[in-house]
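Quick start: what a row looks like.
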Amino acid sequence: MEKKEVIRIGGRRSKLAVVQSEHVKALIQRKFPHFDCLVFSANTLGDHVQSKPLYSFGGKAVWTKELEDYLYKDDDTRIDLIVHSLKDMPTLLPDDFELGGITKRVDPTDALVMPIGSPYSSLSELPDGSVVGTSSVRRSAQLKRKFPNLKFESIRGNILTRLTKLDDPETPFKCIVLASAGLMRTGLDFRITQRFQPDTMCYAVGQGALGIEIRKGDEKMKKILKEICDPVTTICCLAERSLLRTLEGGCSVPIGVDSKYDQKSKQLTLKGVVIDVEGTEWVELSHTVTITDEREDSIRCGRELAAILVEHGAKKILDSINLDKIV
């Protein structure tokens, strides 16, 4: 029997990350049954440090560095690609690596989760001073704009850890906010109390999509990924990442997006919001372009919206943010 060629897939060790790696494995093996995909998982700095908000010790690179070391290796521990939650993937990668593809997006919204048995079903029902758990400055800033009567405190850990903290009878949290996609991928979407729409909260750049990182110039992996990735998601997410990169924002900066691509008209509409951490100042605008070159026009859309946002005051808001003062 002919031995199958092996593709080694790397990802983080959390339950969600393993589910995502297995999803990409299934996509590849469905299209290329002659490949045998092996999933390798590793802990990253972001997994080890659970007591601090991400913005206080390194931003998005805390999820990627250890895995990139395995991508770079030249021995039998070398991996061929890394599966990331695209929202956790830096917009600027090390020189030796590149974004090889983006899989079809699932629900990109943020979700409100109430404790089991809670009498409340929305933030508007909560008593003044209720504590909302989220470690995302983007989420807390946008919600402060709409619900200034509530308090927002950091909550770290994987999905199950956060849900356990929420359901504890002694919990300080009246609710928490998580990505809808993470709950869906782990079979926990029954815990979603409410999905936030863009008029309340714009989602994170790349949220709901998986980004696949490869060695730069790896044509074999590029050809494989082209067959399993989604063009509509790619167009939207390239525009979102271009916006974020141009504004020089990271996972800690309050930048939200909402993107839609109409395949029939080839119109891409990208909405962006830049908001201060207290939710008192913001710039929220949209921009539409016609896509003729999927990559170049998507990236151009993000750059152009960034320029429009800056023209209307976004740079002033971003420059005023001092993350050291955020509790």
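That is the whole record. The chain has three domains: 1-102+209-229, 110-195, 230-327. The mean pLDDT is 90.
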